[in-house]
Specification:
By secondary structure, the chain is an alpha+beta fold. The protein contains four helices and five strands; from the N terminus they run ββββαααβα.
Length: about 120
């Protein structure tokens, strides 16, 4: 499987790693019907492997924070989270994903932007 490439502020990154169930995606906040916690208080997404498919539950469930008046709901935002290396969950090393810059001609744009984003 090819890892997703994300471009943030003109800087291309490859995201590697995997979900460590830290809960930083805030599914609880979105009132997601697929979200729960196991006995160890780790987050569990019941549809993690089908996040890019149309969700029949959220497309119909008016109580879901994702409901959009019957329009097909795809949890692409969940599949894409986190989408850049300056999110606090990445900077704090809470998340299991890692971002690696794709350098152009050996030049790092990220290191120049770190001075702005990383405090």
């Amino acid at each position: 499987m090819t890892e997703p490439t994300h471009i943030v502020h003109g800087v291309p990154f490859i995201r590697t790693g995997e979900c460590n169930r830290c809960g930083a995606c805030n599914c609880e906040k979105w009132n997601c019907p697929h979200f729960s916690k196991d006995v160890d208080s780790k987050t569990v997404c019941a549809i993690h492997n089908t996040l890019t498919e149309v969700c029949k539950i959220c497309t119909r469930d008016k109580k879901s924070g994702w409901y959009d008046f019957g329009k097909p709901v795809i949890h692409q935002v969940c599949a894409d989270f986190p989408n850049h290396p300056w999110l606090n969950v990445i900077k704090n090393k809470q998340c299991g994903y890692i971002f690696t810059e794709i350098k152009t001609d050996g030049i790092s744009i990220k290191s120049q932007l770190d001075a702005i984003w990383v405090k």
